[in-house]
Amino acid sequence: MPISLSDYSWPIADLTTISRADLHIAVLMFLENVKLGYAKHVGLNKEIVPDYQELQEAAKDTNATDLEKQIGDLFNSFAKDHSDLIKNLSTGNKEEFEILLDKALNDVTGDQSADGAYAAIVAGVKYQTLAEAVANSNNKIIKLLADVIEDIIIPADIETTLNLNGYTITNKESHTITNKGNLTVVGTGTVDNVTHQKSALFNDVGGTVVLENGLFNRSKENGQSASDSGGNSYYTILNHGDMTINDDVVISQGKDSEGKFSSLIDNGWYDGNNNTTKTESTLTINGGKMIGGLIAVKNDDFGVLTVNGGEILNCAQNSILNWNVATINGGTIACDKIAVYNDYCDAESDKGILTINGGKISGTIADIKDNGASKGSSVTVVGGTYYHDVSNFVSEGYKVVPYGNKFKVVVDEDYKPETNSEPLVENNSTETTEPTNSEVNDNGSVGS
Questions:
Q1: Are strands 120-122 and 338-342 parallel, antiparallel or unpaired?
Q2: Residues 292/253, Cβ–Cβ less than 8 Å
Q3: What is the number of H-type helices and E-type strands within the chain?
Q4: Dihedral of the CA atoms 411, 416, 420, 421 (nearest 10)?
Q5: Ramachandran angles phi, psi of 84, nearest 5°
Q6: Nearest Cα to 117, choosing from 105, 1, 34?
Q7: Closest Cα to residue 264, out of 321, 341, 323?
Q8: 153 in Cβ contact with 183 (< 8 Å)
């Protein structure tokens, strides 16, 4: 049966005259009582016997009656302000209860816990630094207990899940999170980077990352233009491994997502010569919102990009710039200049192969531009909804038709293929509705 909170209630009184030291004692007393009831509730063989006399001596100038009153005052205030804790106390969610207990204690006393500052908890064990938690997290869940300022490395032999739990990780001087292992990020919260030429998340060669939730940001991003970094600019996410972005993820650059020097996400290598293993960097975007950057998603040297959903918006130049191999099956891709830009450099790492099966794509200057056709790039369009007529990119057997005030690519039912040619099949589009965008009469160009 759920714990009866009436077992732990005391009279309400004014807390304004209680000193911090006495309040801290009252917190400890309250927690001991609640833990005792909780232990009995879940059947733990754990006895917690509060020693009123010891607490009274520690308070020195507080008698037992006043101290009990303080404890009661604290409980009533605590219960009012921490309904989430009370809910978990009643339902028997032990892990959530312990985490919320620490967070609530910090709210009341200004400390991270009665025993010291804890950054995270793993399998019931609390750690004072996130690095320590990571080292003990293989095949386990790391749950943040506080905001932390650390540079975190996930080693190659670690497979772990990081629950942000509503808190923020900010870097000290390097990438905020460098992943060499297998990392999944869940829970609301923020991963931030404030240092020039460093990312909120760097997924190294051989690393695997799945982003389920969270805000990834460079809060002090100051990129002014394609030629001016403002002294603090870089990719919010840099991927050299395998990465998947799902729903409930937001990736931004700066306070108002107004970075204009660096790309928001770089999938692949700025200089492919530095990729000595020639390993492909794979990025799959199933959902989420990516906002800002000179280019929102740059598919760089050795990059393989698949977009199945999500929103890729509000970039300074292009929503997507493809240098290597990119496939768009769905999602909303919108830009005030050129939405999707394709280019070619070489046949090994910058192939310029772009396939569009679906999605809602809108750029006020152009929806698609292929700058490498004369050099060897290719664009195949067999689906999607567009702001402009993209007939010059549509594959044989397909056509562009009006779609409200936009255009849609569909199978041409009147098309008669040549003898022995393969029959046309429907594309893999995941689009559902048409996009919207406003007209802007600017000229776009491509930056790095």
A1: unpaired
A2: yes
A3: 6, 33
A4: -30
A5: -65, -40
A6: 105
A7: 321
A8: no
CA dist 374 to 341, 343, 356, Å? 15, 10, 20
Closest C-alpha to 3, from 45, 44, 31, 34: 34
Three-point CA angle 244, 248, 251, nearest 5°:
70
Strand bridging mode 281-285 / 303-307: parallel
Question: End-to-end CA distance of the chain, in Å?
Answer: 62
pLDDT in tens, 98-139: 555 555 544 443 433 333 478 999 988 899 999 999 999 999
**H or E element: which one contains 25?**
helix 20-41
User: In this structure, what token pair is assigned to residue 307?
Assistant: 């977009």
The encoded tokens of residue 208 equal: 């695997």
Q: What is the pTM of this model?
A: 0.71
**Cα angle: 95, vertex 97, 98; to 5 degrees:** 70
CA dist 316 → 16, 226, 290, 339, 361 (Å) = 53, 9, 13, 10, 16
Q: Taking the domains of the chain in order of start, what are their residue ranges?
A: 5-93, 127-411
**pLDDT averaged over every residue in the chain:** 78
Characterize the bridge pairing of strands 366-370 and 120-122.
Answer: unpaired
- Cα 308 off chain centre by: 17
What distance in Å separates the CA atoms of residue 218 and residue 69, rounded to the nearest whole number? 47
